């Protein structure tokens, strides 16, 4: 069993980004600038945004945080987005999700300029991704690609099972795995909550990417010997032995699976750390495009 160390790979990506920023400075080019819009005071969203801002500092990016009250109207939020779209100093920005219930999330994401859409959620960029045109890829699928490529796991001709069909993970990674590129060329099956015979599908697969959010759902007797497992799931489960009272668990029962697999990502420390580094990589790309 080989462990795919997402923490280590993410560190490498951040170092590469930092080197690019240093090179830009040497050439008197502007440093990339990432902005984040945070609506309301949801604790988890605040933590995610804080770690994005912290990561910006580490690689030498400029960052801005727009904290907005959760009573903000849709029109006011759109106007704020328009201001950022028009601000030439900002290369890319994200609208931290989820948004308050009275705001139409889809409508808001469609207002982000596709040129600054470093989350890759705008329909223009999503469409380009589907067509195989170079664009900003959503951060988690981009992180999965990075993990697979840097671990030298072959995807060509392999049977891949993606479990979960969300817009942010399952659907995009299934598209990317089937594309006719160096990363891709797999035979992809997408399973979801209505799929039958999931166990059989798992047993037939060379690569499994699980993004469902059910702790320890995939057991050792469900997988083929030597297969590669990417565990995207992140669920807090109660743990009285932990000082925090909970622990973070993936979709995969690591204990029973690890003795059978070829490669596996741990949770935490697998896909999770990659998401922020890929967001920064997209921001660098946006900055380079606007040079
Ligand atoms: P989601 O929560 O929007 O949807 C879950 C998906 O799982 C659905 O498509 C559903 O059809 C499928 N599903 C549910 N029960 C199933 C079952 N019994 N069998 C087969 N499929 C089933 O999906 P999401 O937003 O992609 O999140 C999935 C998990 O990934 C969550 O734990 C989330 O926290 C985690 N996540 C992690 C990262 C990261 O950076 N590591 C990023 C995004 C999401």
State the helicity in percent bands. Answer: 25-40%
How would you describe the shape?
A: globular
CA gyration radius, whole angstroms: 19 Å
Q: Major beta sheet, specifics?
A: 6 strands, parallel
- The span between the termini is 44 Å
| Secondary structural class | alpha/beta
What do the pLDDT scores average to?
A: 97
Low-confidence stretches: none
**How much strand?**
15-25%
What strand order characterises the main sheet? 1-11-8-7-5-6
* Bound ligands, each once: nicotinamide-adenine-dinucleotide
The count of β-strands is 11
Total of DSSP H or I helical runs spanning 4+ residues: 10
Q: What's the order of the H and E elements?
A: EHEHEHEHHHEHEHEEEEHEH
General description of the model:
- 40% of the residues lie in helices and 16% in strands.
- The mean pLDDT is 97.
- It has a six-stranded parallel β-sheet. A three-stranded parallel β-sheet has the order 3-2-4, with helices on both faces.
- The chain is of the alpha/beta class and 291 residues long.
- Residues 140, 163-166, 168-170, 191-193, 195, 198, 211-214, 232-235, 271-272, 275 line the site of nicotinamide-adenine-dinucleotide (NAD).
- Nicotinamide-adenine-dinucleotide binds at residues 140, 163-166, 168-170, 191-193, 195, 198, 211-214, 232-235, 271-272, 275.
Short description:
The protein is an alpha/beta fold and 291 residues long. The protein has ten helices and eleven strands. Helices cover 40% and strands 16% of the residues.
